[in-house]
Amino acid sequence: MVDNISDITADDLASALTGDPGTLDVHLALIERDVLIDGHLVKIHCHCLTVDGNGKVQPRRLAEFMRNAVADYAIPRTKLAKAKERDRKYNSTEAVVGLLEEARRSFTDLAKTGEGGEMLLFLLAERFLGLPQILCKMDLKTDARLHYHGADGVYAGITDDGFLKLYWGESKIYKTASEAIKECLASLSPFLIEPDHEEAERERDLILLSDKADLNDPKLTDALKRYFDKNSVMSNRKRYCGVALVGFDAAFYPGEGAKGVADDIAVAARTELEKWKERVSSRLTEEKLEQIEIELFCLPLPSADGFRDAFLSAMGLKL
Which top-rank group of organisms is this from (predicted)? Predict the structure, then answer.
């Protein structure tokens, strides 16, 4: 672990990651990764829903998979670790089950909620990119029916020369790709390009990080917090990056009663990806994000509304 209070390595951050990365492949098929656009620093990753042996896609299975990881997303690492330790001591599951219910109750039941997209972004950031979440936003909510004001998540990477890459998260699930891309990058932009000052969009999250950043190791967490201490020289060693998810309707999935073929879906997605790249390029230029590193997930869905409904149902928030 950390030997110097201001020294964090990639291995240190990797030790804070949650879950088995291989489980993503059960529900999401990787179509393309690290797709570049000339003149920009974005990397696009495209996934589609997997096709089962019956030629069906299963958005409800994806939602149930997400539900099962809810505590990893919504409960601070240290709090969850203490519950696990208590359960080991008393040969019980009481403490962890209590936190699972606490996590579930922190989600809103509003029909147009974006929290399903936010949680899916968390799973992809941690399990696909290897970027640990360092600020648990769900734990900051004071009302389950209200959304937390700020980024949809904050994740961390580290460079070889010790600069903290702070990834501000944003997710948007809309009916069309154009709308999802536009709204997502517009929401992300202020966190990435505004100068640091007390009125900056990111300032509230930076203050929270200085107090609530959590990597489930006191020494490592203290080292991380140095980057958010305005009185520390380490505060000048942050680089702002973005990690984003856009989900939208896609017509190439099998309709009701039809059977899908995974290869056909992949070919159609790759064709459409060329159009999505053009929209991303245009919006990056519009938002002045050309020189900002952004990891962008494109997730075509059978139905954006259906994804939201499936997530609310899996969470027990919709009958």
Answer: Bacteria
Three-class secondary structure of residue 142 per DSSP: coil
In a domain, 84, yes or no: yes
How many domains does the chain contain in total?
Answer: 1
User: What sections of 135-261 are H helices per DSSP?
Assistant: 177-193, 203-212, 218-225
Cβ proximity of 263 and 65 under 8 Å: no
DSSP string, 2-15: -SSTT---HHHHHT
Is the C-alpha dihedral spanning 71, 76, 77, 80 positive or negative?
A: negative
pTM above threshold 0.90? yes
Closest of 63, 80, 62, 88 to residue 18, by C-alpha: 80
The answer to the question of residue 319 being in a domain is no
Residues constituting the chain: 319
Domain span at residue 68 reads: 10-314
Q: Using CB atoms within 10 Å of the CB of residue 271, give its burial: 0 to 12 exposed, 13 to 18 middle, 19+ buried.
A: exposed
Residue 202 amino acid letter:
R
Per residue in 127-179, pLDDT tens? 999 999 998 777 775 554 555 567 888 999 999 999 999 999 999 999 999 99
Shortest CA distance to 73 belongs to which of 102, 44, 111?
102
**Dihedral angle sign, alpha carbons of residues 161, 21, 129, 223:** negative
Q: Is residue 154 part of a domain?
A: yes
pLDDT of residue 149: 61
Burial of 44 (0-12, 13-18, 19+ CB in 10 A): buried
pLDDT tens for residues 34-48?
Answer: 999 999 999 999 999
Q: With respect to residue 170, please indicate whether it lies within any of the assigned structural domains.
A: yes
Q: Which three-class secondary structure string do you get for 167-185?
A: EEEEEEECCCHHHHHHHHH
